[in-house]
Design goal:
Layout: E1 15-16, E2 25-31, H1 35-44, E3 51-56, E4 63-67, E5 70-74, H2 76-79, E6 82-84
Antiparallel strand pairs: 1-6, 2-3, 2-6, 3-4, 4-5
């Protein structure tokens, strides 16, 4: 269920997680990274099809994302390797 302060991007374009603004919800499409990064993201629960809500993205530095009831901080470099729709 969506709340008033959360929006889903209108288009179905694929972009990286670092490009998503606060309040937006997206689904993980793919991770374009090596096995170490993929393993770390898998351990955090970030798998294909997972819904992610962006909590904080200030344009530089780490991002704070929501994953279910959890809040996770991800570095910008890692977020740029996560493709979402």
């Amino acid at each position: 269920m969506l709340t008033a302060d959360v929006s889903i991007p209108a288009d179905n374009a694929i972009t990286d997680l670092a490009s998503i603004g606060p309040g937006e919800r997206v689904r993980l499409v793919e991770v374009e990274a090596g096995r170490n990064v993929q393993g770390r993201l898998l351990a955090l629960g970030l798998i294909k099809g997972t819904e992610i809500s962006m909590i904080t993205n200030e344009g530089c530095g780490p991002l704070l994302i929501g994953l279910g009831r959890s809040r996770i901080t991800i570095g910008r470099g890692m977020a740029e390797k996560i493709l979402v729709r």
